[in-house]
Design brief:
Elements (H helix, E strand, L loop, with lengths): L12 E6 L3 E7 L11 E5 L4 E7 L2 E7 L6 E6 L5 E4 L4 E6 L4 E7 L7 E5 L2 H10 L3
Length: 133
């Protein structure tokens, strides 16, 4: 038995390690996570999700309040800090091309217990405005 080493350098996210309880992924920039491509938020109804910024820049977008009148906020991540997205919180990541993050979540997290919220044009404009402050 030896040590396994995992890596991912492509666009988007890859589950680089997974067992029956938890998963570790590497998330890199992709067009849908660029500020010019952001168009939705997601939530995991049953599980938390952890992010760690390894390099580059990432801002977490999240929505408090009810689904009809959300209060969309932004939090710029700092390298090597652990950010917990609690179950049920609408969120997304806005990254730049040099971004690399680690993420950890329950291995049972998937489309069957997650939702995607397509943002309306005024909400996309609100997200973009957060980056001009």
């Amino acid at each position: 038995m030896g040590i396994e080493v995992k890596d991912f350098s492509g666009e988007g996210m890859s589950r680089v390690y997974e067992n029956q309880k938890w998963m570790v992924g590497i998330k890199n920039w992709k067009p849908a996570n660029d500020i010019s491509g952001i168009d939705c938020l997601e939530r995991h109804r049953e599980t938390d999700e952890l992010f760690v910024l390894l390099s580059g820049q990432c801002t977490l977008i999240y929505a408090d309040g009810n689904d009809q009148n959300p209060d969309i906020k932004a939090l710029k991540m700092e390298p090597f800090k652990v950010y917990n997205i609690p179950a049920g919180l609408w969120h997304n990541t806005v990254t730049r091309k040099d971004t690399k993050m680690a993420l950890v979540e329950d291995s049972a997290t998937g489309s069957h217990n997650s939702d995607v919220w397509p943002l309306k044009q005024d909400q996309i404009a609100q997200v973009k405005k957060l980056f001009k402050l």
